[in-house]
Write a structure and sequence with these properties.
With 141 residues, the chain is mainly beta. The protein has a single domain, classed as Jelly Rolls (Sandwich), CATH 2.60.120. Helix content is 9%, strand content 40%. It has 1 helix and 12 strands. The chain is globular and about 55 Å long. The mean pLDDT is 97. Bound molecules: dTDP-4-keto-6-deoxyglucose. The site of dTDP-4-keto-6-deoxyglucose has 10 residues, from strand 4, strand 5 and strand 6.
């Protein structure tokens, strides 16, 4: 089974109000894991791309709080491109998926909710190494 099969679009509660909208995320309810870490990406210069790696254990949910960006996901065989531009939606990325982010609009703020603490050893940042990893761990029977 491809790890891409476990990519999900999540819909968070949205409380609409004349004063503005409010969304919220509760661990193990709106994201399918206990939250150990949150980080955010902002002030991305025009034309910059981020990501270019996969995780061994970390599961994460990407939420575009403002602006828009294109999320490219691959298992080494198939590519999915998802445009993130709604603050009440998230994309769940499981381990074993190579992600990269492109076409950030000016002022984009990307919030990322993670199942694991930061650990550089959890990253696979070399694409040929990633291809070997997914073949061994997901595609070989
Ligand atoms: C991902 C995409 C969506 C930390 O010290 N702590 C942290 O929690 C994170 C996320 C990063 N860092 C350090 C590690 C690097 O020295 O910040 C520096 C930049 O990290 P990186 O180049 O991995 O940033 P992105 O935007 O390429 O990737 C990040 C996440 O690392 C990654 O998990 O999936 O956002």
């Amino acid at each position: 089974m491809s790890p891409l099969d476990n990519v999900r679009i999540l819909e968070f509660p949205k409380v609409c109000d004349p004063r503005g909208n409010l969304s919220f995320i509760e661990e193990a309810i709106h994201v399918p894991f206990a939250i150990k870490r949150v980080f955010y990406i902002y002030d991305v210069p025009g034309g910059a791309s981020r990501g270019g790696h996969a995780h061994r254990r970390n599961r994460q949910v990407l939420i575009c709080l403002n602006g828009s960006m294109d999320l490219h996901l691959t298992d080494g065989h198939t590519e999915k491109v998802i445009t993130l531009n709604r603050a009440h939606n998230g994309v769940l990325i499981p381990p074993g998926v190579w992600d990269s982010m492109h076409n950030f609009s000016s002022g984009t703020v990307l919030l990322v909710v993670c199942s694991e603490y930061y650990d550089e050893d959890d990253y696979i940042r070399d694409y040929p190494r990633f291809l070997e990893y997914v073949e061994q761990n997901y595609f070989s029977s």
